[in-house]
Write a structure and sequence with these properties.
CATH topology: Rossmann fold
Helix content: 40-55%
CATH class: Alpha Beta
CATH architecture: 3-Layer(aba) Sandwich
Radius of gyration: 16 Å
Shape: globular
Strand content: 15-25%
Bound molecules: 4'-phosphopantetheine
CATH superfamily: HUPs
Structural class: alpha/beta
Distance between the termini: 52 Å
Largest sheet: 3 strands, parallel
Number of strands: 5
Length: 162
């Protein structure tokens, strides 16, 4: 069998242990993962794309076959151009499903060979999201269990008084 590569797109603002868990699971199924730091139309990011790339890179094992890139434009166009036909997305709960289903079908409309593979993160992370992590950190809660150390450190720098 040839080398099989999969794309893992997302906002990753910031990356959580749930995302890292999904990457680890995807690496059991694919030879290489390309993490794509993308913009979500409906979210204003806290961290720049460059920072988000750095956080993912620093949260991975040094020898992991994972590349982290910034996505400009459409995911489907990137996939087509690079001839990659698998997209990985994490699915935590039924509430994620509607948006994920729409995206999977839209992506396949744009590039018919593109399949979306949903992976479920470890139970410990099913209630963890970048949005909640930021909110809890901003209001002084402890988020160190849910994010890689580099992210915990950066969030403490931004919200120092706690
Ligand atoms: O982590 P998120 O915010 O749920 O990820 C959503 C994301 C970034 C994967 C999605 O918004 C996306 O694919 N953006 C790239 C531009 C694109 O292709 N948009 C059309 C998606 S059907």
């Amino acid at each position: 069998m040839g080398m099989k590569c999969a794309l893992y797109p997302g906002s990753f603002d910031p990356v959580t242990k749930g995302h890292i868990d999904v990457i680890d699971r995807a690496l059991e199924l694919f030879n290489e993962i390309i993490v794509l730091i993308a913009e979500n139309e409906s979210k204003i990011p806290l961290f720049s794309s460059k920072e988000r790339v750095e956080f993912v890179q620093q949260s991975l094992r040094k020898d992991a076959p994972v590349r982290v890139l910034i996505l400009e434009g459409l995911l489907a166009d990137f996939a087509k151009k690079n001839q990659i036909n698998v997209v990985i997305r994490g699915l935590r709960a039924v509430s994620d499903f509607e948006f994920e289903f729409q995206m999977a079908l839209m992506n396949r409309h744009l590039y018919p060979k593109l399949e979306t593979v949903f992976l479920t993160p470890k139970e410990d992370y099913t209630y963890v999201s970048s949005r909640l992590v930021k909110e809890v950190a901003r209001l002084g809660g402890n988020i160190s269990k849910f994010v890689p150390p580099i992210v915990a450190m950066k969030l403490k720098e931004i919200y120092p008084c706690h």
